[in-house]
């Protein structure tokens, strides 16, 4: 599988969503009769699409609406929600600030200390609506925040960093012992992010209940450019699905994998499931919802890093309600709305009655899948050739430069 990249050095070819396609099945099914549910420990969700723990995507209001629609949204405990009594004031400064000064603004706002009473308050606000509550934090804050969130009534706890391993070496601080932490928790723990088979197996052996897959593919993430680290999501998902299946045969315990990031539309989400995902986590698709706190803007989780930010603020626009984005009716032609409709239609097309069957879909390498026969879309920049479902705002440098040439 590996190719020579120079004298004595070989590299494995890996694949992203644009390089593969799904093959129709020998039978097809009525899309309204397929089963999209997925399970995590004792919890069952009708919508297998999770809203990522990003401040421009999820706040209490968004989490409640997502829960009411049968899905799950993860609240970021390291962000503005647990730093400010009124997080919308901080978000307003980020989205209204000069694009050239965004990094400086974000870093300043995230220097405000996290207030533990706000962690409990946010969890209680979500639970008051009688929907599942999931919260996320980095490994360094896990032991402290996990106990608070659990006591306040959280249903799921997510431990998330750019790259997470079961064996983290550090002398300046005490690394998180995943196995020990999980034993202290009465609620399921999701861990990530990983992109390799070996990482996946070792984290599953610690007792985690689900695994997040993906390093740097997010629309607002710059990790791959800043660090040069990452694996395209198709290969990462397939490898981690193999780790899940190996661990299940070995232990009898099934650990779902969740492809996190890099999915721009319904087609990408369908491909992630076909590659082996049990659920997917997306950010930019939900940042376009009217209910999203970012008002059409989206920024990376590692953006606030004090010395090496890995993220940027992007404008995705507000294109519709959360219900439109999840269930339609779609008013855009780029596949960014009615994601559940795309998923069920694809499952029906390949003849998959449920997610497990969908994971067995025939996949082909198809580098021309995005361009074949699409010359008019490319020239007119519509449909599959659309760069984004919304233009930059009128006061952005991009729009200003374009207008100045008209």
Q: β content, as a range?
A: 15-25%
Strand order of the largest sheet: 6-7-8-9-10-11-12-13
CATH topology: TIM Barrel
Low-confidence stretches: 388-406
CATH secondary-structure class: Alpha Beta
Q: What composes the largest sheet?
A: 8 strands, parallel, barrel
The gist of it:
The protein is α/β, with parallel strands linked by helices and 406 residues long.
Describe this structure in words.
This protein is of the alpha/beta class and 406 residues long. It has a single domain (15-375), classed as Alpha-Beta Barrel (TIM Barrel), CATH 3.20.20. Helices cover 34% and strands 15% of the residues. The chain has 16 helices and 16 strands. An eight-stranded parallel barrel has the order 6-7-8-9-10-11-12-13, surrounded by five helices. A hairpin with a 2-residue loop joins β1 (2-6) and β2 (9-12). α4 runs parallel beside α5 (142-152), α7 runs parallel beside α9 and α10 packs across α13. The longest helix has 19 residues, at 233-251. It is globular and about 55 Å long.
Please give the structural blueprint.
Layout (H helix, E strand, L loop, with lengths): L1 E5 L2 E4 L7 E3 L15 E3 L2 E3 L3 E3 L8 H9 L3 E5 L10 H10 L5 H8 L6 H12 L6 E4 L4 H11 L3 E5 L17 H7 L4 E6 L2 H9 L4 E4 L9 H4 L6 H19 L5 E4 L5 H9 L4 E4 L1 H4 L9 E3 L13 E3 L6 H6 L11 H12 L4 H4 L4 E3 L9 H6 L16 H8 L2
Parallel strand pairs: 6-7, 6-13, 7-8, 8-9, 9-10, 10-11, 11-12, 12-13
Antiparallel strand pairs: 1-2, 3-16, 4-5, 14-15
